[in-house]
Design brief:
The structure is a homodimer of 467-residue chains. The first copy, chain A, is mainly alpha-helical. Chain A is built from 17 helices and three strands. At the A-B interface, helix 1, helix 2, helix 4, helix 6 and helix 7 of A face helix 1, helix 2, helix 4, helix 6 and helix 7 of B.
């Protein structure tokens, strides 16, 4: 029995390892990269010519590799530069302080050194509480304190500490250079790209929710044939929840990304900070969706839909799905780093006009019921949806601002990055010259419940155009 | 001019430093503690008897102090234990691997060592991606990789590396012990206490909002004399926003707190994990308040309140302020680590009965307006408030659960931590025997808009009771 338990546990762990690797294969590659970098710096010890040059200081190279090799290039660069700068600054300061301490004679030296160590360690530690320093230079300050203490303390013992400082600095440089080169050259993981993808995928998650919401909420109003869509729809509900707590991850990625050189489509000074603004607007929208989601609970859904629900069904569904499509188009354009596609504006306008329809419906439609309590869930949903359109508009403006700041490529208006989407489901019969002398296109509009299946075969238009 | 600019800049920085220290004086104390700890370990170098014992390994003590001394006791303990364990494990493994490599002869040794370093570094790096290991043992695994590389690589060079390992381990122990002792004995900052205070203060922020919301939202319905309350009320609006992004801070504090020994009112195995549950429910409630807050915007407020707003004003105000008071009582009890006070249950019940009043008002009150759009903001506010009562109830249950798990002190039911509060404002004239032979109490109910000013002078009752 005991063996079986161990076996099961081992299987479980093996499955977990497999899943972790499958979820993000970059993790496996990163682990291998760290192994390679460490084996490389081991050469400092194994290979005699190098050992003779650097001596026992080779351990600093090992230490540097272990400590600064991070998952993303930005984090590795940030730690490497922080370590280098911190060591350099603290080293020079340490040399100066040692010189001062030497002046105070054999007896006074330890006291002078002790006082300096205390003062500099305490003030540098305090500086780590500044939010700006904490976010970017925390590790550098740590290394500053460490190196200053080591240099000034060792200086008291080892007379040739300039050699030591030089050895230490050069081994750190070699270790850091190996890390940074492997990190950048072998399957690099860019913090900037991760941030870019995470922000766009968050917008996509909201879009999925909004596209699915209408069908789910108004499910009971519909006839049986739409039941399948609802089953499929369940999966979108959980996606947006991850957006709610995305702030800390985005903040740290933006901090790392600013160290990264030009990569892929991103310049060195890509406006990473602006992603935080978009991220914050995305979370605002996610909070509203959280409020909306409370109304999807089955206990609130009545089997017999209220009159109000029937009244608002069409505009609400259009508003929700068009907002979702506008977000999806925004996310697609942003992901491809092209100027926001016109289709996102089209969908946003459609959502706005649906919002006005909804407002009109509410303004004109008389409440036939005397029971306000019954209509409250539907009224709330309508109210939240109206606000969501505003949120989507804000988000859209922020993405446009980003596209200007980051010089996104503009695409020709006629080339849509997605399959063309029209508001109405219809086919356009191309004009055939042989059959008819009059140039025309015939467009038949089949329905409005799904805009995805449109095929645009001829020139665009919304009605028959005999010319 | 140039000097003036520098002077202004220096003044600005000085002000920032002062503010940082005033905001949390523990930061200054922490900085001094780090300085003291570093000066203490410097003794390893300055004081000859110690130096003779430990030799150049004294630098490991300095390094340990700089690296593991964190702001909270829990973080320091976590890093210290991780460092100790990681060093011990990697040290023993390094010795074993060295023994194996020795067997493979002069030529084979570097290859065997290189392969082991690669395999162990890569697999340990991969293990850092497991969420459970990342949260608690990340630093330990880092130190494991570092020590293993150092020991196995140095082993190839230095024959007496057992002495080195022993020296390194003992200096790390001494450095760690100094850090942990200073951290615990001198003005300790406990992660557990910080988590406890942060969770209760977050509940308090929501309570402030809910207590202020009614007066703010229904301001335009009231006459001039309440204007002052509104001015004062403005400050509560921003407080809750900090709650929205509190997750990552709470997660890390809970991880540190589990390392901390008994301190203050907290046992060693205090149910810190349960605070995360309460924190998550608090955020749920904050999301709802975020939805509510959108309706405080001035552009939505109409100068002429709708009929519906007048109808729902009293129950909404009561619901909101009683929910706020229930949360405040919960937070007060939780902060003092006493069982949830009966008053929180009283307020929760009052909020629930206000919720039922509100529902009844909505059920019975006819919508005289034909313009549904006009009543939608008020309907939404009512709907969100109804949901908030459910959230407050969930939060209350979670706090009760915590009080059981953490064995909070129970207080006597008759001792209320606050002044007694009733739902209705009224006075009870005590029965005066001399004037009238019939025993009775006269209760006059003056109004319902404020429950705070009630004085309970006689026996309780809801109407005149001539007996």
């Amino acid at each position: 029995m005991g063996i079986q338990v161990v076996k099961n546990k081992a299987m479980e762990i093996a499955m977990k390892i497999k899943k972790l690797g499958q979820d993000d294969p970059r993790r496996i590659i990163h682990s291998i990269k760290v192994g390679v970098a460490l084996t490389l710096v081991s050469l400092f010890y194994y290979w005699n010519p190098l050992y003779d040059g650097f001596g026992a200081s080779g351990i600093w190279a090992v230490m540097t590799v272990v400590v600064i090799f991070e998952f993303t290039v930005g984090a590795t660069l940030s730690k490497g530069l922080n370590r280098g700068l911190g060591t350099l600054l603290a080293g020079s300061l340490g040399v100066g302080v040692n010189y001062l301490a030497n002046l105070s004679g054999q007896k006074g030296e330890p006291f002078v050194l002790g006082i300096f160590v205390f003062l500099i360690a305490a003030s540098a530690t305090f500086s780590r509480f500044f939010p700006g320093i904490k976010a970017r230079y925390d590790y550098g300050v740590l290394i500053f304190i460490l190196t200053f203490s080591l240099v000034s303390i060792s200086g008291y013992r080892i007379d040739e500490f300039l050699t030591l400082a030089h050895q230490r600095l050069s081994t750190i440089l070699v270790g850091g250079a190996i890390c940074i080169m492997i990190s950048i050259l072998v399957c690099p993981v860019w913090a900037g790209e991760t941030l870019h993808n995470s922000v766009t995928s968050n917008i996509n998650k909201l879009a999925d929710y909004l596209e699915g919401f209408g069908g789910e909420y108004f499910y009971c109003c519909e006839d049986g044939e739409h039941g399948v869509a609802t089953e499929k729809g369940k999966s979108f509900v959980e996606g947006y929840k991850a957006v709610l707590n995305s702030k800390s991850m985005e903040d740290s990625m933006a901090n790392f990304a600013r160290w990264e050189p030009k990569h892929g489509k991103f310049r060195f000074r890509h406006p990473w900070k602006h992603y935080l603004k978009i991220g914050s607007l995305t979370r605002q929208c996610a909070y509203q969706i959280e409020a909306l989601n409370r109304h999807l609970c089955p206990q609130i859904q009545t089997q017999d839909p209220s009159q109000l629900r029937r009244m608002i069904e069409v505009p609400c569904k259009t508003l929700s799905s068009e907002s979702g499509k506008a977000l999806k188009a925004l996310a697609t354009g942003m992901k491809a780093m092209t100027n926001p596609s016109p289709s996102s504006q089209v969908h946003l306008n459609a959502a706005k006009s649906a919002m006005n329809d909804l407002k009109d419906t509410l303004k004109l439609g008389t409440a036939q019921t005397t029971n306000l309590l019954e209509i409250i869930p539907d009224a709330t949903v309508a109210s939240i949806l109206i606000e969501i359109v505003k949120s989507v508009e804000d988000l859209s403006e922020a993405v446009v601002e980003l596209s200007l700041k980051a010089h996104f490529k503009s695409i020709e208006a006629t080339v849509s990055p997605e399959k063309p989407q029209l508001l109405h489901k219809g086919t356009i019969n191309p004009f055939v010259e042989a059959e008819d002398e009059q140039p025309h296109v015939v467009i038949s509009v089949r329905g409005t419940e799904d805009g995805d299946l449109t095929e645009k075969k001829g020139s665009s238009g919304t009605t028959s155009l005999p010319t």
